[in-house]
């Protein structure tokens, strides 16, 4: 178990540097919210007085002005983890008559905010599939923010003929990238790290499996023979939330309804007992797509709505012995056979104060009963037959793309472990975080 945690704070216009000592001495709390699918953000609170350098020198000169870049790095047991790489979006000053009670709050979002500034509607993308457009759109930000695109090709690669049609952008880079992701059932997010100043922009399927560029967290345990490592944990199961989605494929003049499976290779069952859907509903919005495109979108949407088992809890990072990341899997122990097993970490909130580092988290999964057995056991399901669904969609298509109806389960490229270097000395640290008793 780690005995000390160091928080490093770096601030700067484009290339942040460690903050002055008086800034770290004024920092009373740092909060970081990380969401698997939505926007992530941070909130820094500083205790200030009338004579504080933060108010007399730094604030008037624009040190905390938007869109100044902010990086938060936590070093634990010699390993550095980049919690947040974002930009300041909001300031809040709360004066007080009591000395030392005035608070300056600095809030911000992750770097996706910088992709959402300039409306480039009408910009042409001739003879380029969506994957190339995303890579080029994100690549523009490499020099400024070190954002490296990780683009997972889909089976729906379409290179438009520039003689017949030239796609044009609608909206900002962020809006356009997300629109292209929605068309193939993908997601887009920016993962900070692995080193301070570096970021990975992921455009691909929502992997509810172990992700190579994220660390594997230790199990969460409660009421586990003295090995409990969380402060609170609770689970819920909404039996009426699961829906059996159906798509209708036209075979000649006969409409054929086909159930959409909610589990697939990138979203395998995380338990042995899959809840029975109590509602049946057609999936709207697929008529404008080709059969293969509709199949890919339907699979992604069905998988995203199948996680009817949810959990939430809090933990002390020093007691847990690690930092729980979002967007990965974690094992739960001690909750009973029904709720034990693997869960996907939907979101985490880090709250860091002198002497304290807490995390709250939310979990989800698509099945009950600990142990998933064969991760491809869905192939034998009588209700959710992925093979039948994929075959029906492919048979109705005029062309079949190479690779069939599937996506790579492992992104290409080398694994990127969490780095161990410690940020530059000389300021920007707070080390008053002793071990828990």
Structure description:
The protein contains eight helices and 20 strands. With 437 residues, the protein is α+β, with helices and mostly antiparallel strands. The chain folds into three domains: 5-109, Baseplate protein-like domain - beta roll fold (Phage tail proteins - horseshoe like beta roll fold, Roll), CATH 2.30.300; 118-204, Phage tail protein beta-alpha-beta fold (3-Layer(bab) Sandwich), CATH 3.55.50; 216-314 and 325-348 and 360-409, no CATH class. A hairpin with a 6-residue loop joins β9 (187-192) and β10. The radius of gyration is 24 Å and the shape is globular. The N and C termini lie close together (12 Å). Residues 373-394 and 396-437 have low confidence and may be disordered.
What is the percentage of strand-forming residues? 25-35%
Given the C-alpha coordinates, what overall shape results?
A: globular
Approximate helicity band? 10-25%
Structural class: alpha+beta
Characterize the main sheet. 14 strands, mixed
Number of strands: 20
Following the backbone from N to C, one meets helices and strands in this order, namely EEHEEHEEEHHEHEEEEEEEHEHEEEHE
Total count of helical runs of at least 4 residues: 8
Q: Uncertain regions: pLDDT < 50 for 5+ in a row?
A: 373-394, 396-437
Rg calc: 24 Å
Note the gap between the termini: 12 Å
Total tally of structural domains: 3
- What is the typical, i.e. mean, pLDDT? 82
């Amino acid at each position: 178990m780690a005995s000390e945690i160091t928080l490093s704070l770096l601030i700067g216009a484009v290339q942040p540097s460690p903050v002055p000592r008086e800034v770290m001495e004024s920092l009373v709390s740092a909060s970081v919210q990380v969401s698997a699918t939505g926007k992530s953000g941070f909130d820094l609170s500083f205790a200030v007085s009338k004579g504080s350098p933060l108010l007399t020198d730094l604030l008037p000169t624009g040190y905390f002005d938007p869109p100044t870049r902010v990086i938060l790095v936590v070093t634990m047991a010699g390993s550095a983890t980049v919690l947040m790489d974002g930009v300041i979006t909001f300031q809040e000053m709360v004066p007080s008559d009591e000395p030392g009670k005035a608070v300056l709050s600095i809030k911000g979002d992750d770097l996706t905010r910088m992709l959402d500034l300039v409306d480039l509607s009408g910009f042409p993308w001739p003879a380029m599939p969506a994957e190339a457009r995303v890579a080029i759109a994100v690549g523009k930000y490499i020099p400024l923010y070190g954002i490296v695109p990780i683009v997972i090709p889909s089976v729906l690669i379409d290179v438009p003929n520039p003689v017949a049609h030239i796609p044009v952008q609608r909206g900002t880079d962020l809006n356009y990238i997300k629109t292209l992701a929605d068309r193939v059932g993908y997601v887009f997010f920016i993962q900070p790290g692995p080193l301070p100043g570096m970021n990975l922009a992921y455009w691909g399927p929502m992997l509810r499996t172990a992700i190579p560029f994220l660390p594997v967290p230790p199990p969460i345990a409660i009421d586990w023979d003295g090995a409990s490592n969380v402060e609170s944990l609770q689970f819920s199961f909404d039996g009426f939330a699961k829906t059996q989605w159906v798509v209708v494929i036209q075979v000649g003049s006969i409409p054929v309804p086909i159930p959409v499976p909610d589990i697939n290779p990138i979203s395998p069952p995380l338990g042995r007992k899959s809840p029975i859907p109590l509602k049946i509903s057609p999936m709207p919005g697929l008529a404008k797509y080709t059969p293969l495109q509709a199949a890919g979108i339907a699979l992604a949407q069905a998988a995203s709505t199948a996680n009817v088992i949810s959990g939430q809890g809090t933990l002390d990072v020093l007691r847990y012995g690690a930092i729980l990341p979002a967007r990965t899997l974690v094992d739960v122990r001690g909750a009973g056979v029904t709720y034990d097993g693997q869960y996907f970490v939907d979101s985490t909130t880090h709250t860091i104060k002198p002497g304290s580092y807490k995390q709250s988290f939310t979990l989800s999964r698509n099945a009950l009963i600990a142990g998933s057995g064969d991760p491809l056991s869905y192939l034998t399901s009588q209700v959710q037959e992925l093979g039948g669904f994929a075959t029906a969609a492919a048979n109705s298509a005029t062309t079949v793309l190479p690779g069939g109806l599937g996506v790579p389960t492992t992104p290409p490229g080398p694994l990127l472990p969490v780095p161990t270097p410690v940020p530059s000395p000389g300021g920007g640290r707070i080390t008053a975080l002793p071990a828990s008793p």
